[in-house]
Amino acid sequence: MVSEQVNAYLSSLIKPRNPLLTEMEQYAEEHDVPIMDIVSIEAMLQILSFTGTSKVLEIGTAIGYSAMRVAEKLPHCQIVSVERDEKRYLVAKEFIKRANLESRVTLMFGDALEVATEIEQYGSFDCLFIDAAKGQYKRFFELYSPLVQQHGLIVSDNVLYKGIVANEGKIAKGIRTMVTNLKSYNEMLMQNDGYETTFYPIGDGMAISKKK
């Protein structure tokens, strides 16, 4: 994992975001809403721009920050994003409206484990972005990887969970199952012959898997 000092330095080099995105970053900090680490999201956006991504499925909207960053970086991209927390969904909806992105960002309220049928109606995607309940990553993958086009990407955030996933020592009881599930997920990605996966030790850990 990159040290906090290095991460802070890299973050300081990144250009300031527009006022609405800055407001969202402040809201997330004040209300303890997890949004993607700034260094990680910049890396993801660069990769998506290189691959010409035009359609993204996001599992875990939170307040809509990542969806708006993707929409801003990729002006021709359509995003479908799912959020199960009603308060966060409503906040995201308001931010998307203020950004005039309602025609490009489709928000769905519900548990991603329960709305697969509705999501399938949107067809296939160039990228599946998983950034929700960390203990359920494997189930998200199983449900939605069939919707990823050939040579498309699956981006999984938080796969190292503060470096604890790499810890061979004792793990606190409250997060033991989640960490075990994340380890299993990471191993599955590397053993899956249908994908080529690379792990990036930035932010909270990010895996990018390319469908063969």
Q: What's the helical proportion of residues?
A: 40-55%
Encode the helix/strand succession as letters: HHHEHEHEHEHEHEE
* Rg for CA atoms: 16 Å
Give the beta-strand count: 7
| Spatial separation of the terminal alpha carbons | 28 Å
The CATH superfamily appears as Vaccinia Virus protein VP39
CATH topology annotation: Rossmann fold
The biggest sheet amounts to: 7 strands, mixed
Instruction: Write the CATH architecture name.
Output: 3-Layer(aba) Sandwich
Strand order of the largest sheet: 3-2-1-4-5-7-6
CATH class (first level) name: Alpha Beta
How many domains? The number is 1
Catalogue the unreliable spans: none
Overall average pLDDT: 94
> What's the shape?
globular
- Tally of individual helices: 8
> Pairing-aware structural class of the strands and helices?
alpha/beta
Strand percentage lies at: 15-25%
Please give a handful of descriptors for the protein shown.
single chain, 212 residues, alpha/beta, Rossmann fold, seven-stranded mixed sheet, 42% helix, 21% strand, globular
Description:
- This protein has eight helices and seven strands; from the N terminus they run αααβαβαβαβαβαββ.
- It is an alpha/beta fold and 212 residues long.
- It has one domain (4-211): Rossmann fold, CATH 3.40.50.
- The radius of gyration is 16 Å and the shape is globular.
- The protein starts with a helix and ends with a strand.
- The mean pLDDT is 94.
